[in-house]
């Protein structure tokens, strides 16, 4: 069955960096877009970033553009989110998600999430 397992979350100071990973199995990773989303306490789920199956295009929410970078390794069936210049408002539970096609932001499977806390 489809599985997505996030890792790499933790506590970071404002201005610091973290790199999230999402290891996947149970589907042909290389033909699907992948995404990251986040949910802060008391707030709705927020889309963060997506990357096409062949890495030809990546997309970012305005709130993270220029600070976060999504990437993927199709040989390892893993998607990453490099987060730099972290802000307290980046604190959230971060989820990775499998796309329904090779491009775009629509997703059909989600991981359990990894917590990111940005605080001094």
Task: Describe the structure in your own words.
It is built from no helices and 11 strands. The protein has 120 residues and is mostly beta strands. The chain is globular and about 40 Å long. It starts with a strand and ends with a strand.
Mean pLDDT across every amino acid position: 97
Helix content: under 10%
End-to-end distance: 40 Å
Task: Extract low-pLDDT stretches.
Answer: none
Cα-atom radius of gyration: 13 Å
Detail the topology: elements first, then pairings:
Elements: E1 3-7, E2 10-12, E3 18-25, E4 34-39, E5 46-51, E6 58-60, E7 68-73, E8 78-83, E9 92-99, E10 107-110, E11 114-118
Parallel strand pairs: 2-11
Antiparallel strand pairs: 1-3, 3-8, 4-5, 4-9, 5-6, 7-8, 9-10, 9-11
In short:
Strand 7 and strand 8 form a beta hairpin. This protein has 120 residues and is mainly β. The chain has strands spanning 3-7, 10-12, 18-25, 34-39, 46-51, 58-60, 68-73, 78-83, 92-99, 107-110, 114-118.
Key features?
single chain; 11 strands; 120 residues; globular; 7-stranded mixed sheet; mainly beta; 4-stranded antiparallel sheet
